Amino acid sequence: MLWLAVVLTALPLEVFASRKTPFAVVEDKTLVGCNARARDHGLTPGLSVARASASCPSLSLAPRDRAGEEALLEGLAAFAYGFTPQVVLRADGILMRFTDNASPVGDAHRLVAYVARGLADMGYAFEIAMAPTATAAWFCARSAMRCVWTSKDPWRSLLRPLPLAELPLADAVRDACLALGLARVGDLLDMPRSGLVRRFGREVVSLLEGLMGERPEVEDFWAQAPRFRRRLSFSHPAETEEALSFALARIVREWVAVMRARDARAAGFTLDMIHEDGSLMSETFTLTRPERDGQVLVRLMRERLRDFRPASPITTVTVSAPLEASTEGSLPLWRDGQWHEQGFGGLVDRLCARLGRDAVRAVSVRADHRPERASREDPWPPQGSGGPLGHVAADRPIWLIDPPERLKVVCGMPRLRGPLRLARGPERVETGWWDEPVVRDYFVAANPAHEYFWVFRSARDEWFLQGYFA
Q: Which end of the chain is more exposed for a tag (fewer CB within 10 A), N or C?
């Protein structure tokens, strides 16, 4: 077996939108993460808040967001699931298991490079390593070795000179080892196992056996969720569209990486924003066709949030979406038709995002002899069994007037910007006793300017305009 370990080296910071000023994450009055600007002032994880604030008065602080870190790791696991179904969640990273020869993208070196490129595209700070055991891979990643070892490599001998600092040993055990002069992995391996058990307990020996592949490793594999969900907190509440768009672009990069890894697309998504006063603003997006293009998704959000002025600054933004299986299949024969279809769907999605979903309507026909009731408007995308507009009769226009407009009559003939000439008709529409009384004779009429209208004559010989032809 081969294990690929990914350790997020700045996990407490990853759940916050990046800042251009000194910023740190705090837990138990101690810094657990510092951005680049804070490190420029000499701040490092482990410093107390009081000492850090004294060293850098402009430092901004935020409490550690454990829930946000768990959500981020879930998204990372979903990305890894595109390479292997055997993914293990750790406190600050993931493990991925592969067979010695099988890989979705080629040999071990190519696989590691492919995963690393995806992590870099998502903007993570990480270390990555591959080894024949999970313990060795994790140990190498924590040691920032960036190694790619397979069972054909002398990986056991390469582990011996490594320091014990990154092994998951209890502090008391590590201090005792250093006191005895045991500073490297090889020093522990050279000690009699029975003596290690008596002095340090069975756990140390079990760790060494797992590291060297001398016993089976039992791991609880992660079960994928059918949804993507990513929450990003602001170290300083966002008040502008620019700050919000920057955070959303980062979430979308992670989202797109997950969809590509799982060969999925988004048919819709929800954007939730929590304000400083505790109120929640939620925006729902329904796409005409499933989408995986990050630029398109960001553009839709920006269209909806254009000229957005929140009543209260935003502290947290969350994007959640079901992951729809891709249905693209092979490329169609007629590429032009595909392009036009995608262009129309993208246009409708942008209109919905910019104007609101209620402003975009789908018109469909239904079986009814009364023209004003023979069509209906539904929210986009249309739901129900209404037929497409292509089924509309040629003598019936789509643009109807409700209520019909009475026309001026001269010598028994209607006029509309001049005398009307009846080009086609009549078409009789008449109801029975079970419905409201309607008796109409419809005609297609034209005026001297060659404008075509749909008119009808009532039972009282009155003329009305019902619709316009394009």
A: C
